[in-house]
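S.,

Sequence below, as promised.
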Amino acid sequence: MKSVGIIANPASGKDIRRLVAYGSVFDNHEKSNIIKRILMALDALGIQHVYIMPDLSGVGSKALDDVAISLSAQFLEMAVDGNQQDSMRAAAMMNAMDVGCIITLGGDGTNRVVAKTCRETPLLPISTGTNNVFPFMIEGTLAGLAAGLLAAGKVGVEECCLSVPYLELSCGNEIIDTALVDLVVTDDAYIGARAVWEPESIKEVFLARARPTGIGFSALGGYLEPIPSGSIKGMHIVAGKGEKAVRAPLAPGLISELSIASYRTFGPSEEIPISRLPATLALDGERELSLDEADEMSVRLRSDGPVVVDIDRALWLAAERNLFVHGAKRPTSFN
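The prediction came back faster than expected:
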């Protein structure tokens, strides 16, 4: 039986899109309550050890207040800087500890940095961010059950997990950064507020996911040409005067129109240069890099992304195996 790791980003769900749109606010009290429910589910399945990323806001420590569990929950021994490096550092430590699953509480941006260092460790992302294309809107108890089943060996990684594609930004042979959902090229002169919501600033969009059921730039691509889940295809959109204009929810409650000069899908074998320079690049909804006209950057789709838990599949398999039913012919003990 393996342990489980929990990474909760105290800053997720609080960016400027709460002011310019109507994004949900997940305060840290609610994040602590979600962790409580995760811990109770893991405890019910007999998981013995849980490791939690420490944070300056006390999200993890408050989750341990007045929770009746027998498992051992302890904080990683690590430096805490109060930025995204904390999540990267925690994910790397949990991967080295060979935890059975890492549960994250955050949005697309949180999971982007965790995916950089979690390697092959299965990821179970719970949505507490803004656009939330990558993580799941799932009750913490169910997430804890799915993670516990996987860590306990009751369901296998090959049965209920899938490696998802992602975008890789490079300069020549050097990898600069990655994105799980979208890479957006804007004409902003500086990074400023990290979130992107103004359609008039957009020059190009690269997508690893194009879902009409999503929000943000994934929805933009999904309305043009949906890419099914499990498909190893990306999309490149060039904004500008053309025959098409798309209205899409670029943020919660914010329906914006973008004129499309061209778009096409592409596969892992293609490398597409960023041609609209100078520019600022936003990765998974947050501005990260400024480029000038001399920068030669390109984007490609990678098929070997993070291993993500299919929560529905894990719970269906557990039900089929009577793991929740006492007195069944098949094994019923959680422990």
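The longest strand covers residues 234-251.

Coffee later?
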